[in-house]
Design goal:
This is DUF2383 domain-containing protein. It comes from Pseudoponticoccus marisrubri. Helix content is about 85%, strand content about 0%. It is mainly α and about 140 residues long.
């Protein structure tokens, strides 16, 4: 598999695990406004993961599954909700996931093998920056 597809697969893996994390967080929160926001963020990740997976599939390769490292971090966050304020802990864990999502996009955008994907990835990254800004605002408000 080319480095281009490896970079795209890294993003797909982060997005898939992030979508799972957001879905589980939406069921764990007791606040309707957080539930709606978490579902919105899960759907965004699912949509972009599907679109990037189609590019990988069209190139004749298997799209990545969810990142086990990200899944582990999400699990630790959910364990943390037992000992700390549930919603604050979820928001904090999700905001950290947002940081890692943006880092995966930045790495792919800067890699020379993804030059032809750059406009598309930058467009997606703007959507995730907006998502990140919402989570950061929630974290700061807590």
């Amino acid at each position: 598999m080319s480095q281009r597809l490896n970079n795209l697969n890294t993003i797909v893996a982060v997005l898939k695990s992030g979508a799972e994390f957001y879905r589980k967080a939406s069921r764990a929160t007791g606040k309707t406004e957080l539930e709606s926001l978490f579902i919105e963020h899960a759907e965004l990740r699912e949509k972009v993961a599907v679109e990037l997976s189609e590019l990988i599939d069209e190139a004749g390769h298997e799209p990545a599954e969810a990142s086990t490292v990200e899944q582990g971090r999400a699990h630790l966050t959910r364990i943390g909700t037992i000992f700390n304020d549930r919603d604050d802990t979820l928001v904090s864990g999700l905001e950290e996931h947002e940081d890692r999502t943006l880092a995966a996009f930045r790495e792919a955008i800067q890699h020379r093998d993804n030059e032809r994907d750059k406009p598309m990835l930058e467009s997606y990254m703007q959507m995730f920056q907006h998502s990140h800004d919402k989570m950061r605002a929630l974290k700061q408000a807590a």
